[in-house]
Specification:
Beta-galactosidase, Chain A, domain 5, alpha+beta, Trefoil (Acidic Fibroblast Growth Factor, subunit A), 24% helix, 27% strand, globular, 50 strands, Glycosyltransferase, 920 residues
């Protein structure tokens, strides 16, 4: 992954409204449908509890809610009406370049003179709806399988005198070329049009690589005139009416006939306008409904923390899928959702480490079409990579650069010591292609795409490895990813060989190809250098130790994604030891510790890991992060961690609930896809797994681990209730027929002993919080309906207008651990509305509750107020702030005997304590 400097402080949010409760169910019922082979779920009802809701207008672009149709996305906030930054995945090889800003405004503005407000991201429908009172509704949606999005306005207010829509760009002269744009000037050149059909802005029109785009818009249901405001802004002047739809597109040149994005944009808008809003909305909703119906997870508990993790699962799935259906993958740091204009880093290529975090979960969640977009980036560059491997290494084989450009170029790799000697990326790419076959049973894809990639990656390693005098193969020097440079026998290389060579031999035999190569490949496997072990744990490379250059837990690559160890393997304890002593726990936004924990059956650790990653990196109420090393990795890897906690099939064994938290109230349910095309469903409640249901898609042999240990189980075919097998063994293997449903159940308590149910839920209406953290989803109302988010703040006291430092004798402005934090005391602040705020201290960037022994971060009446201390906040004219504590909703002044809400120099400052307030 891109190198990241340590010590970046995460921006925190805070809220106190808990998550919605779990869907109604009981230990005595089950939701499995014997006919469909999946769970009975009212998806509309169930997923509505995971909607993201803003109950007051959000003016911060970074907190904007996200809406997309698979190729084009918009991040929406309130500024001069409604504003949104729009982007698409196929617009530029420099993936940071965004399409531009769309701004809807009116006179009077939509957000003037209202008493009730709600903005809702409906995950099930894929829509973003903003309601002001009962007379203004704005729905943002899209046209499926296109680059077109829509803004539908219902505005019945009298006296609206004007409506406008602007398309604009930032100053194009600020665009910087990192590595991969041959003609920067064409990206600084903007052309416009404004005519009876609509308005548009274009740039990149002379890009030699055929990138570039046109951002264009038109109107359905209202008359309008078109206007060029200036060289980077065009406008639609819309005649006010009670109902109209604005259609806009980010039409990419590379996907346009004749590379003409202007004509493409015009045609796209004309087509959607002809189809009409109602039909397009219905098609769009159905597209998302069909998407969600392919799988299901429930991960809940009585405390609500697991439900928050589940909410993050569905939100992350939506955000990735909303930009994941283009010609190019959703970039891990840019995607189609950002509010940073044309600015971001790491946009010059695709780092495989980071992209796998984004995509690898979608095999299990039955969205192979998403991961196939990722795989196509590598398979279509097969010839270019083969040629470059010969040029760089003189080897007839396939080396894949860890940092790869859109066309297979290695410019981002060979110029970076972090990645220039990484050899294992080709194996990961080949293995993901092989897995695509294993989940789809597409033998043509195996023969024509996956196997050639596997074969050439194996040939590269066969030539790249050295051989000592005893015939042992070893890697003389390479990078163990970005963390250990130029070391001997990087564990990633040894794992790559042990993974890919046997698979390639197996597929070669299956396809009847390259029989003359197999013996040589097997010889490498038989004589490969061993992994190094020290103190019972795997080392990332052979001794001596190498300096660490990044924060990856490289030795755990064996566990995932190389699938070389896990539950039931002979080296299981060594793998667990390796996890326990890993050097960089949850060290960055791309950390995958929780996936490793799940693969090792460490359920409580996987649960805590998902919490930890959200606590550290889910900083914004829209689910996104302020970590500039990426946005989508921690979202994608959260999906993988939850999937692997609920169901595993990586070693050709189906194992349900392998890594669940040690919480008797845990309630888990899922329908997920296993290798060889088994749609697997199971439910666990009250510490009991109820059954394992399978729908066989391809008629392969199934192998299921007995979730009840040695209890007798049986395999029943649901179509005729025939019992196919009975056993007390710890596994059962049975043949299946395509499109047939089977149930593995306890003989003593079969599925029929449970009553039937359908899973559902009720719509979320407010803010959710992850207890013990500052992570929230949603924004509350200023005076009620759930507190709004705020940020991490630092406070420093003033006495007689002089700063009083935390270590200054006698003053002690705040008494959270001053030695740990330093001169600035750090707190989470949350806006409670009505001029009141709540504060909670941080020590070493960890939340410290008010009753935490020894820390005592705030000394207002803790018994009355609880872990969050409530204060009135006054901003003073000199730039300081004053705080006054509330106890039982009554103000307590600083000199009030016994309360002492703050302990800065009270005699010097007086009853109000004055502080500098810095938002981090």
């Amino acid at each position: 992954m891109p190198f990241a400097a340590a010590g970046l402080l995460a921006l925190s949010l805070a809220a106190v409204v808990g998550p919605s409760g779990p869907a109604s169910a009981a230990p005595t019922d089950a939701a499995f449908n014997n006919g469909t082979g999946a769970l009975n779920v009212n998806y509309a009802g169930y997923m509505s509890k995971h909607d993201i809701v803003y109950n007051r207008p959000n003016t911060n672009p970074l907190h904007g809610l996200t809406v997309g149709n698979g190729r084009t996305g918009a991040m929406v906030w309130q500024q001069n009406g409604l504003s949104m930054q729009v982007s698409g995945v196929d617009l530029a090889q420099q993936s940071t370049y965004a399409a531009g800003i769309v701004n809807l405004f009116s006179n009077p503005q939509l957000d003037s003179g209202y008493t009730t407000y709600q903005q809702r991201l409906s995950l099930y429908d894929g829509t973003l709806t903003t309601r002001y009172d009962g007379n203004r509704t704005v729905t943002i949606m899209g046209s499926p399988n296109s680059e077109v999005m829509g803004i539908h306005v219902e505005d019945t207010r009298p006296g609206v005198s004007s409506v406008g829509l602007d398309l604009s760009l930032w100053d194009p002269n600020t665009v910087q070329n990192i590595a991969d744009v041959p003609n920067l000037q064409t990206w600084r050149t903007v052309s416009t049009f404004a005519d009876a059909a609509g308005v548009g802005l274009s740039r990149g029109q002379a890009d030699p690589n055929n990138f570039g785009y046109t951002l264009a818009a038109t109107v359905e249901g209202a008359s309008y005139t078109s206007q060029v405001v200036n060289g980077t802004r065009v406008r639609l002047n819309i005649t006010p009416t009670s109902s109209y739809t604005i259609w806009f597109t980010a039409a990419s040149r590379i996907n346009s006939p004749g590379l003409n994005s202007v004509t493409q944009a015009r045609n796209q808008l004309a087509a959607v306008k002809s189809t009409g809003y109602n039909t397009t909305l219905n098609n769009y909703r159905n597209w998302w409904h069909n998407f969600w119906a392919r799988s299901f997870v429930q991960y809940s508990n009585a405390g609500g923390d697991a439900d928050y993790l589940e909410n993050a699962y569905y939100l992350a799935t939506y955000m990735i899928a909303a930009g994941g259906h283009g010609n190019y993958p959703l970039h891990f740091i840019n995607g189609v959702f950002r509010a940073t204009q044309d600015n971001s880093k790491w946009s010059n290529g695709y780092w495989y480490w980071n992209q796998r975090d984004v995509y690898n979960s979608f095999l299990a969640s039955n969205h192979v079409d998403l991961i196939s977009t990722f795989n196509r980036l590598y398979s279509r560059n097969y010839n270019a990579l083969k040629a470059y491997t010969q040029t760089r290494y003189g080897i007839d084989g396939l080396w894949v650069p860890e940092t790869m450009g859109w066309d297979g170029n290695a410019r981002g790799t060979i110029n970076s010591d972090y990645v220039n000697d990484t050899m294992s990326t080709g194996t990961e790419a080949a293995y993901n292609m092989y897995l695509q076959y294993r989940y789809t049973n597409d033998t043509a894809y195996l023969r024509d795409v996956a196997y050639p990639y596997m074969r050439e990656a194996v040939k590269f390693y066969q030539r790249k490895l050295s051989v000592d005098g005893s015939g042992r193969y070893y890697m003389a020097s390479s990078n163990a990813h970005e963390t250990y440079w130029d070391v001997r026998n990087a564990i990633t290389d040894l794992a790559a060989v042990r993974l890919l060579f046997p698979l390639t031999i197996q597929v070669s035999t299956q396809l009847g190809l390259d029989s003359g190569l197999r013996a040589g490949w097997q010889n490498v496997v038989n004589n490969l250098a061993p992994y190094q072990i020290q103190n019972g744990a795997y080392l990332p490379h052979d001794p001596p130790s190498s300096p660490t250059r990044n924060g990856e837990n490289v030795a755990l690559e064996l566990v995932w994604p190389y699938d070389q160890t896990g539950i039931g393997y002979p080296d299981y304890q060594t793998a667990v030891n390796t996890w326990n002593v890993r050097p960089f726990p949850y060290g960055n936004v791309w950390a995958n510790d929780h996936v490793h924990a799940a693969r090792l059956g460490l359920g409580q650790q996987a649960f805590q890991g998902m919490r930890t990653m959200l606590q550290k990196y889910q900083n914004y109420p829209n689910g996104m992060t302020n970590n500039t090393n990426g946005v989508f990795e921690y979202l994608g890897i959260h999906l993988a961690a939850m999937n692997e906690s609920l169901m595993q099939s990586y070693n050709d064994k189906i194992r349900v609930f392998p890594a669940i938290p040690s919480d008797s109230s845990f309630n888990g349910k899922f329908t997920l896809l296993a290798k060889d095309g088994f749609l697997v469903s199971s439910e666990r409640e009250a510490s009991e797994t109820k059954y394992v249901g399978l729908r066989s898609l391809h008629g392969k042999q199934a192998r299921v681990v007995n979730p009840w240990g040695t209890q007798e189980i049986r395999v029943r075919r649901t179509s005729d209730n025939a019992i196919l097998a009975t056993t007390t063994a710890n596994e059962v293997t049975f043949a299946t027929a395509a499109n047939t449903v089977y149930v593995v159940e306890r003989t003593a308590k079969p599925l029929t002993s449970y009553s039937a149910t359908t899973l559902s839920g009720s719509a979320n209406q407010g803010v959710k919080s992850l207890s013990g953290t500052a992570s929230t989803l949603g924004i509350g109302t200023p005076g009620g309906g759930g507190p709004g988010p705020s940020t991490q703040v630092s406070l420093r006291s003033r006495a007689n207008n002089m700063y009083v430092q935390a270590g200054s004798g006698g003053a002690g402005p705040l008494q959270a651990s001053v030695t740990a934090i330093g001169l600035w005391e750090q707190f989470d602040m949350m806006d409670l509305g009505g001029g009141n705020i709540a504060l909670r201290a941080r020590v070493n960037n960890q939340l410290v509750s008010a009753d935490n022994a020894g820390a005592n971060p705030l000394i207002a009446n803790k018994a009355a107020v609880g872990s969050w201390e409530t204060f009135a906040l006054i901003r003073n004219s000199d730039g300081t702030v004053s705080l006054r504590a509330q106890v039982n909703n009554m103000y307590v002044c600083a000199e009030n005997a016994g309360a002492a809400p703050l302990i800065a120099n009270r005699t010097a400052i007086g009853p109000w304590e004055k502080f500098d307030l810095i938002t981090s």
